[in-house]
Write a structure and sequence with these properties.
GO terms for molecular function: oxidoreductase activity. With 436 residues, the chain is of the alpha/beta class. The protein has 11 helices and 17 strands.
Length: 436
């Protein structure tokens, strides 16, 4: 198939209703209380808190505000943590593991309350999430996980056996799964646009298309050098993630940008949507490189995403890989066209936990590992309270040491195609063992 024939558009579906646009140029202040690097979910959430506390604060973004991951993601409010409870306990201790698990629930509730309280029109629907597993042994583990979530955190979570699976998803690909009713979906570009609206109205200045080139200590303050000039700031907050560049080399050696790619179908008949996604839930898988997918907010299309091992250009192979994955799940869609396909960067690091940390006086809020819809607003808000000295409001289990640096890495993720292919091999082996 020719690349041009894979999808009608190679731009985010979300930009149809909420296009990312340049902001009017603003004069550059000579002095600020706080300079924020990054104007995505985290930077805007932090800026909103600081502006409402009457701090002079500006956010700088190398691209248009939200042009990165904030308007390119799948819009699932999962708040997933990549390492499981046992792994976190082994690395950081049981107390930290319990706190992190509990904070996921609080962070989701914070997001839902924030959307309601601020009146953010972003098509949010608390519809629940189904997680499919590929083997019966995996189902038993997943069922126990659902029991733990229900008992320990009071989350409405339960196992779904294979015999009941089609009540939740119209496929026989899985061997059962689990449901969590505390997860929903939103329109990520609308959410960013609304967040930008309230942040600007509260007094935050956003300098879009204004790259920060360096941050230098200047006595008790900082010199923030940008393409538009230099600003003196009392405090600096870095909220870059998958688009971190050389302006913050300390962080760049710790975050690895990984492409995440999404495809969206053309509009499907109502009866097809009712068959394939009867409850309009968000969907994920238990595989190493599992897909995430969902109905679009209007309930007329299916969106599916996954990791992409390409590093340059916009090749056809990753798009075709996702299309084959969609058809494996839903053979009924073999002849359906794709309306949109695009990619964006997520940031991974060695322990895969979101993070607030401080280095040489600069505060960082970053490392969302593909779950920034929930974690970026939460971590950005907590980081703002940290700068303000608000002890209780700044409290979070994710405020601890920086992520470890990655040897031989300085921003060029040359090793990622091999790592992703290794994960795919593990998934192929797991699928073979589950089916034999």
């Amino acid at each position: 198939m020719e690349e041009s024939g894979i999808a009608d558009k190679n731009t985010p579906y979300w930009w149809e209703e909420a296009p990312v646009r340049p902001l009017p140029r603003q004069p550059l202040a000579k002095k600020l209380d706080v300079a924020i690097i990054g104007a995505g979910y985290a930077g805007l959430s932090a800026g909103l808190v600081l502006a409402r506390e009457r701090r002079s604060v500006a956010a700088f973004d190398a691209m248009n505000s939200g042009e990165g991951a904030s308007t390119r993601n799948g819009g699932i409010t999962s708040g997933s943590i990549r390492p499981d409870y046992a792994t976190i306990t082994r690395r950081f201790g049981e107390e930290k593991a319990i706190a992190i698990e509990a904070e996921g629930k609080v962070a989701r509730e914070f997001l839902y309350d924030f959307i309601k309280t601020e009146g953010l029109e972003c098509d949010f629907q608390l519809v629940g999430q189904f997680k499919g597993v590929i083997g019966y042994d995996d189902y038993e583990k997943t069922a126990r996980s659902a029991e733990v979530l229900a008992k320990r955190l009071g989350i409405d979570a339960y196992a779904v056996p294979y015999s009941e699976q089609r009540n939740y998803i119209g496929t026989d690909f899985y061997r059962g799964g689990m449901v969590r009713m505390d997860i929903g979906g939103l329109h990520p570009a609308k959410f960013h646009a609304e967040l930008l609206r309230v942040a600007l109205a509260s007094g935050l200045t956003v300098h879009a298309g204004t790259r920060v080139t360096s941050v230098e200590r200047d006595g008790s303050e900082f010199r923030v050098v940008t393409e538009a000039g230099t600003v003196q700031a009392r405090q600096v907050l870095v909220c870059t993630d998958g688009y971190t560049d050389g302006a913050v080399p300390f962080l760049r050696r710790r975050l690895v940008p990984v492409r995440s790619r999404i495809i969206v179908t053309e509009e499907l008949a109502p009866e097809v949507m009712a068959q394939l996604m009867p409850r309009r839930m968000m969907m994920i898988e238990g595989r190493q490189l599992g897909f995430y997918y969902r109905p679009t907010p209007d309930g007329k299309r299916i969106l599916l995403g996954g990791r992409d091992s390409s590093r340059v250009g916009d090749p056809a192979a990753p798009k075709l890989f996702l299309r084959r994955g969609l058809i494996n799940l839903f053979p009924e869609l073999e002849n359906v066209r794709l309306s949109h396909t695009w990619f964006g960067n997520v940031a991974m690091h060695r322990d895969m936990l979101p993070r607030i940390f401080e280095k040489d006086g600069v505060v960082y809020a970053t490392g969302f590992c593909g779950s920034g819809v929930v974690w970026a607003p939460w971590i950005g808000t907590r980081a703002a309270h940290k700068l303000l000295g608000h002890g209780e409001q700044a409290r979070t289990a994710f405020d601890f040491r920086p992520p470890a640096f990655i040897p031989l890495y300085r921003g060029n993720p040359w090793f990622m195609p091999a790592i992703i292919e290794g994960y795919r091999m593990q998934d192929r082996i797991a699928l073979y063992r589950a089916r034999r």
